[in-house]
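Model it.
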Amino acid sequence: MQTPKNEQKLHRGLEERHISLMSLGAAIGVGLFLGSASSIKLAGPAILLAYAVSGAIMFFIMRALGEMAVENPVAGSFSRYAHDYLGPLAGYLTGWNYWFLWVVTCIAEITAAGIYMQFWFPDTPRWIWALAALIMMTLINFLAVKAYGELEFWFALIKIVTIVFMIIVGLGMILFGIGNGGVATGISNLWEHGGFLPNGFTGVLMSLQMVMFAYLGIEMLGVTAGEVKNPEKSLTKAVNSVFWRILIFYVGALFVIMSIYPWNEIGEKGSPFVLTFEKIGIHAAAGIINFVVLTAALSSCNSGIFSTSRMLFNLAEQKEAPPSFAKLTKRGIPGVALIVTALAMLVGVYLNYVSEKVFQWVTSVATFGAIWTWAIILLSQLHFRKRLSPEKQKQLKYKMPLYPYSSYVALAFLVGVVGLMAYFPDTRIALIIGPAWLILLVVVYYAKGMHKRHAYPSDKKQVS
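Modeled.
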């Protein structure tokens, strides 16, 4: 398959450390710092089980994406793979859906930023801070891609260092009683307050929507593929390392928190991160942690704006979005696509102005969009494999483990999460807005006659 001329102008300025931290920056956001408290209330200590199982599913999804991305590293990768292996309509829907999901996710992030800023400025309306965050992140994305990658690297590093420090300090309390008068807390809090499964498996199932939202962003490695130096080496290492780091950060941090504090008190006495640091004598802990979680939200939003602009660029390349979205600035940035994305996120500023329930709405809608994207990645990988000859399959540089069973198990899990979202009233809104958006896209697709043209005709024959 030929690479479009315009795409060659995207600057390959991202190095391995950039894309590893970018994916971490996208995934370790408000899902951990703001969303985990609500998940713990639903599942209790068994939330660890939900994160571990969901993490295993995400590992298979990432390996499926990595298998295709190493063979064909292009910008907006899974939209292009869907186009090539599942058909033009699937590629079109996936690209626009991913744009929509990150617009919605960034609304969640700027909402969180507004909440955090009220810690220092309680009398200032939240929507003002949400607007300021959006403007700042948009301007940052107009930097050259290498400068953007460098900034995001340090952005993400702040919260990662904080989480690691919290885990180390927490383990010190659990094992040696550091900050607790020398009395080791142990891990009995994991089962002493109603048991490990205080709300039964129903609580674990109810928590899966927020847990899956927490993992949203890990697939961003695929979007960066068109701007990565040495894609084969960088993508392979990044896929493996990012997954394990995220799993350690989420499961590790929550294990420590719920070992030190009874799960049913978390969120009622303030942030567990703040409480942990205050126990060892860091009196400015509240301000420090608030700054960290603020950078976490901004970092995730920053990565989201990056990925959505690249997805619009890719859609324009495939003639499934206005041609102006494919125009690049002198620094190799899809400027028009970036501005359009930022304007769409202004809806989030308005929602913050009219309602305080924005966060719960947007996380469930974003989770539906993410599940669509992950399912498309798995389906594309299955079709990608089927098109390869047995000899070509043996020569793959980066293979999906346990193929094809791992792909089918992951798909079944995603279908199950959608079923749970339909079952529980709090997340049902996502199954109204998400499908409505997809139906609107299909109507536009056929109304504009996009079904009559193919930007990249797929070769249906087996690759030998």
